[in-house]
Amino acid sequence: MAAEPGRRPLSVAIIGTRGVPPVYGGFETFAAELGARLAARGHEVTVYCRASLYRDEGLRWEGVRRIELPALRHKYFETVSHSLLSVLDAFRRDFDAAIVCNAANAFVLPLLRVGRIPVAINVDGIERHRKKWNAFGRFVYMTGEAFSAHFADRVIADAEVIAEYYRRQFAIEPDILAYGSGFPDEEDSNILSLLGLESRDYLLYVSRFEPENNPEAVVAAYAKVGGSRPLVMVGDAPYAGELIGRLERTSDSRILFPGAIYGLDYRTLQRNALLYIQATEVGGTHPALIEAMGSGGAVLANDTPENREAGGSAVRYFRLGSDQNLTVLLEESLDDPGALDVYRTMARDRAQSTYDWSVVTDRYESLLAELAAARVP
Q: Among 76, 194, 244, 288, fewest CB within 10 Å belongs to which?
């Protein structure tokens, strides 16, 4: 498919993710979904990838050019070291525009400005609120927010809650471009049989195993619920070995820890879950939440402004540590699973109308064209 009539093909870089094909989380899925769609429209898309995560992936994936570069394997320097090398490489190439992912990478924005590469930064959520960061980490993110506001040509927020924060804090007007959700018509994989699961007879949690995503709280709430339906805890996280160890030492044999799962296996798990649990409390629009909605999932979500913005009335909400707690909602849902069908229909409809990847790609394509048109030779 060629670029839209009257619009010339663009050369675009995506910087700051772990790369494609996606092997980690939300920004990697974003780079894959958006990059492949832009490439299918005739644009030349380059995604910078961390060499340590891939083996023999080749120079192209789904029409996207892959450039693998090294990174320092350290909790605080892995992302920034890779982004720095990516920008230095970008100086050698004639990019019309770039998308930088994550406010932690905003330190590269002045360099891109020196290189006269127009840039939009997708800032994600207010990452300095994550419990894993010490004072230095929080300072880096605070600095990244300021750099994003002052040095990016455009700041992208994926939720109104995040956009309002940047309006209030920095007096700028971000572009609100939603994350996408889409489930293709396809046959299920064999992941259910491999894990010993039955369709609509298990609960699903998907997230990085980090404190603010509350995996331990989910395990504790589920432990108080009777019955034999398994809870499948899909996820992993670098530099979180202690937390992962505590989770995997649980004595409840109903809980499964298959690790991180992507692609068809991941979509199969989403489509067939009886109930999906979203326990995150930091971030913008969470990809797994709207993907669960798009799959026709019945969702229970932590009651945060971001999750309410995404889920609306199609999702039921809980507050950790309160009377309206997760255990109560789990018991109600499992006692009457047929009542969940109403939420499944509403969730799918909301995801299709609000978070369609084709519409999201249209908006990014227009933004990138505007950046390229303003480029100084």
A: 194
